[in-house]
Amino acid sequence: MAQTWFMEILEQHDPEFARLVAENREVVMKDGAIPARYKVLMTMLSDAILGHADGVQSIARRARAMGASEQEICETVRVAYDCGGMPALITALAAFRQSSS
Hints:
The protein is mostly helical. 74% of the residues lie in helices and 0% in strands.
């Protein structure tokens, strides 16, 4: 899994805890009964509900790289709206924002 900006900061300040967090994420986010790409879509849903548009955009790119279809992205946006209402929908639309970062 790609290193995120927050994990880079954690690693600089607390390498031991960063290692534990990274190990936990590997266990949680790997393929299991739920495929890894669905788990990534779940994280996109969570970021949408929490109002993290930049996170949604980044996670949507990761999901696409893992093979998520545009329909899967769209359905995740719909679930975000169902669970989080209009604020989550507006945030979830960041999944369709194009950028080079």
